[in-house]
Amino acid sequence: MITVIGIFDDANLAEEVSLYLLGNGFTNETVDVHTHGDQPDDHDRVGGFFNHLIDDEKQAEHFASLGRRGSIVTVHAVSAREAQEAADALNNYGAIDVNASDDSPSHSQMIERIVTDDKRLRGSYPIA
Fold this sequence. Notes:
By secondary structure, the chain is α+β, with helices and mostly antiparallel strands.
């Protein structure tokens, strides 16, 4: 399983890319959208999600910090081809550059790790 993550400053773009993905072969079971909000557990959920995926604590906190301020679209891909299709869509819809010092043309991140159901960022919260 490959987890593909895109973080968006604009919640509308996150919603648009999720609809695009759902209309192009992905399912509700493989696409998660999480929009930041004032929910009490939001801070911990986003931090727990990135700590679950990323072994480097500093990098996990960097991603979590960006994710807490934006909308996170996560795609759980079953193949490298599917992961690349998801990454291309996330990038085309405006995923933010999470690695400002990196010269990579891709803004979304692919991580080869399964996200357990208790860590998935399912559901959207209203924008604060």
